[in-house]
Design brief:
It is built from 6 helices and 8 strands. The chain is of the alpha+beta class and about 230 residues long.
């Protein structure tokens, strides 16, 4: 048995030697002598402005100065009063509403039946002898039937309103028995009142006079739409 085992062992050795079962050679990884370095760029730091530093000053122009609406209307009213004082209806026509014309009210309560003149008639009113009905006289109730030149000294410029001691905007100064519906009749309007508190002490102020000029806005311009005369009524 031992001889057979030895013989088999010898045969196996011979077979293995003839087959050349050696493993292939593996090339080793070449490691460079110096590795590349990773380069980082230092970030630029954020510089915060110091609260005590002086920033660049950007000059801001001052706002434009605009004339206030109230002052504009008061100025226009003064020019209208001057035109009435001078009986200059041509100059007055430059202030009249081009579509609504100009309404004349003999007393504080404005009515639809009050006389209204279109713009194109204003300039010639002082030369117009046509007789118009302007309303009713206070007290008697008789119709006020007058030409414009006759109406003017009774219900427009019966006192020198250009020299009135008191002027108010959207505030009634002369108060009598007549209802003042001007702000309701002319919504959104501005009303300038020229007022005399009285002339003769014996009447204790009952002889006051007011003339109110009614302005409304048209194409961004305040134009004249109403003339309201007021006085003490029964």
């Amino acid at each position: 048995m031992n001889h057979k085992f030895i013989l088999i062992f010898i045969v196996l050795v011979i077979l293995l030697a003839g087959c050349n079962l050696s493993a292939p050679a593996i090339s080793p990884t070449v490691v460079p002598s110096s590795l590349p370095s990773l380069e980082f760029v230092q970030p630029t730091p954020i510089v915060l402005a110091s609260p005590t530093s002086n920033p660049t000053t950007i000059p801001i122009p001052p706002p434009a100065t605009f004339l206030s609406t109230q002052q504009e209307i008061l100025d226009r009213a003064a020019e209208v009063i001057t035109a009435f004082k001078d009986k200059d209806m041509v100059s007055l026509s430059a202030y009249v509403h081009p579509e609504m014309g100009l309404r004349f009210s003999p007393y504080a309560y404005v009515k639809d039946t009050d006389q209204v003149f279109p713009l194109e008639m204003i300039a010639g009113l002082m030369d117009d002898n046509t007789v118009y009905t302007w309303g009713m006289y206070d007290g008697s109730g008789e119709p006020i039937v007058l030409s414009f030149p006759d109406y003017y000294p009774k219900f427009i410029y019966d006192v020198d309103f250009a020299d009135a001691p008191q002027v108010a905007l959207n505030h009634r100064l002369g108060v009598g028995n007549s209802i003042d519906n001007s702000l309701e009749f002319y919504p959104g309007s501005m009303i300038v009142e020229y007022y005399f508190p009285g002339f003769d002490a014996q009447y204790a102020g009952m002889d006051w006079r007011s003339l109110r000029l009614v302005f409304t806005e048209y194409n961004s311009i305040w134009v004249l739409v109403g003339i309201i005369h007021d006085q003490w009524t029964i």
